[in-house]
Amino acid sequence: MDDMTEIIASFRELKRVFFRLVHQDAEAVGITPVQLMVIRNLAQHQDITLNELAEKTQLTASTMSGVVERLVKAGLVERERSEQDRRALVLHVTDAGREKLSVAFGPQSTFQRRLAAGRHRLSEEEIRELLRLHHELITILTTEEGEPQK
């Protein structure tokens, strides 16, 4: 196996493991992984529209509409009129939604417990280098061919 194939396989496996753990943590708080992702995005970007949220999560507006509707019915998300544009509806996470988020991504989550348990296996320097390499790969993979690197 060449280096590029091995890198791709490694990221696929990491993604698979990551999503399996997120799925477990979402299920533990009684929501789907997509709902968890939406709540997390809303917590990071309060008072955004449905279309803005769909764009940030890379879901279609129609898919996002259904997800948000279920989250509103569950009391995890609220819709209200924008103060800037009274015609627009903006979304924000309720206290109940924040609670689900804090449990699903908190220290008791499967994902966080496993990271914490294995933390001693990586030095601070290795973590910084890993993050640097990830950022560099993101830059490489998101730069158009022929476009100069920044």
TrEMBL record:
Keyword set, alphabetical order: DNA-binding, Transcription, Transcription regulation
Presence of the UniProt keyword DNA-binding in the record: yes
SUPFAM superfamilies associated with the record: Winged helix' DNA-binding domain
Gene3D superfamilies: Winged helix-like DNA-binding domain superfamily/Winged helix DNA-binding domain
SMART domains with a match to the protein in the record: HTH_MARR
Domain HTH marR-type: 4-139
Keyword GTP-binding: no
Any Pfam family hit: MarR_2
Name of the protein in its database record: MarR family transcriptional regulator
Taxon lineage: Bacteria, Bacillati, Bacillota, Bacilli, Bacillales
